[in-house]
Amino acid sequence: MDDIAQDLGISKKTIYRWFENKDQLVQELLEFSLCAPCEVNTRSEENAVEEFCVTFNHQIQNLIKFHSSFFNDLKKYHPSAHQIWAGFKENNIIQQFRANLQKGIQAGLYQQDLDPDILARLYIGQLETIYTSDLFPPEQFNRLQVYKFNLRHFIQSIVTPAGQKYLHEILARTCCV
């Protein structure tokens, strides 16, 4: 709390007026950080490929704002806040991705033989591996570049020829992937 007070230029007493302890502060900051980017607008007229690119690019932009040790520290030092993250991941990110996969399969933009439950978790696992492992050291790899490469590689592996057409259109007009 000393570091936080010093960085904010306020006293610890002021912080404790608003937060009972450091765990409460971490929980509320995490909830705020997770909910703020939830306002991503996925218009109903977007196809699943465009929705995937826009939504997950936005989430990646927000994810890279966290230090790579953040989620490990959260799990180790603030288990209740880590539960908030785990719930958000399960109830928002994975569900959103699963819904996108189902939408794309129904529209014929994604391959019909995909299992949305497995694929949603597989993709999130890839993102977590990039984020929390030593596989891509930050001094050697730009994390945003690795995420975008992973996003592009992933979407290219699941689209049908019709989905590939939309993906090429998206790539031609935007740098989202």
From TrEMBL:
Domain HTH tetR-type span(s) in chain numbering: 1-37
Highest taxon, organism lineage: Bacteria
A molecular-function term among this protein's GO annotations: DNA binding
One Pfam family named in its UniProt record: TetR_N
Alphabetical list of InterPro entries matching this protein: Homeodomain-like_sf (IPR009057), HTH_TetR (IPR001647), Tet_transcr_reg_TetR-rel_C_sf (IPR036271)
Membrane-spanning segments: none
Keywords: DNA-binding
Protein name, UniProt field: HTH tetR-type domain-containing protein
Lineage start: Bacteria, Pseudomonadati, Bacteroidota, Cytophagia, Cytophagales
